[in-house]
Amino acid sequence: MGIYTRTGDEGQTSVIGGRVSKDDDRVEAYGTIDELNSFVGQAISFAEGEKFADIRTQLEEIQQELFDCGSDLAFVKINESKYKVKDELAERLEGWIDACQEENPKVERFIIPGGSTLSSTLHVCRTVCRRAERRAVTLGKHTDINPAVRRYLNRLSDYFFVVARTANVRQGVPDVEYVRSKKVFRK
User: Fold this and answer.
1) What does the subunit section of this Swiss-Prot or TrEMBL entry state (predicted)?
2) CATH number for the domain whose boundaries are 12-177
3) How far is it, in rounded angstroms, from Cα 40 to Cα 54?
């Protein structure tokens, strides 16, 4: 099978159930998820050694789930029976977030993305994830989408924030605080 089909040369692409413009909100949403998945792959390449084995395993699972998110958003007509993303995935992320939070120092100020290479890459994942969520919200304003995808992306951006901090902790690298900020996070 050849990699090129030439079917998109006129600015259209195939989705599940039809063809749409390559700048369609649907393509923007699942394309941003694809971009996020690439950055997750990059983060995995930096999560070396035994101290990151759990994070590496989680990120590998997230990559599979991001493909599921993209697939669910690619349906032109709603087909709930074929949706892959369920609310349980967001709930599982909450468990991972809680476990990582136990390792992290309390946060009092906003955190500037940085620290270790792994942490910095996870912050990139967080920001791209938030954009993916915004694209899913935009798509959902004019067509039905799987709402579990939106919830998953929302929780996933929280996961990336927390695990970026955990990556720094495990490498003995302090978070970079926004020093001009007052203490905004309290008990």
Assistant:
1) Homotrimer.
2) 1.20.1200.10
3) 14
Confidence check: pLDDT of 16 > 80: no
Type of residue numbered 29 = A
How much is the average pLDDT of 24-42?
94
Mean pLDDT of the chain: 90
CA 132 – CA 126 distance, rounded (Å): 10
Position 163 confidence tier, pLDDT thresholds 50, 70, 90: very high
Single-letter residue type at 128: V
186 pLDDT more than 70: no
Taking the CA atoms of residue 47, residue 50, residue 55 and residue 57 in that order, the dihedral angle to the nearest 10 degrees is 100
Is 185 in contact with 107 (CB distance < 8 Å)? yes
pLDDT of residue 181: 83
Sequential DSSP letters for the chain:
--S--STTTTSEEEEBTEEEETTSHHHHHHHHHHHHHHHHHHHHHH--SGGGHHHHHHHHHHHHHHHHHHHHHTBSS--GGG----HHHHHHHHHHHHHHHTTSPPP-SPEES-SSHHHHHHHHHHHHHHHHHHHHHHHHHHS---HHHHHHHHHHHHHHHHHHHHHHHHHT---EE-TTS------
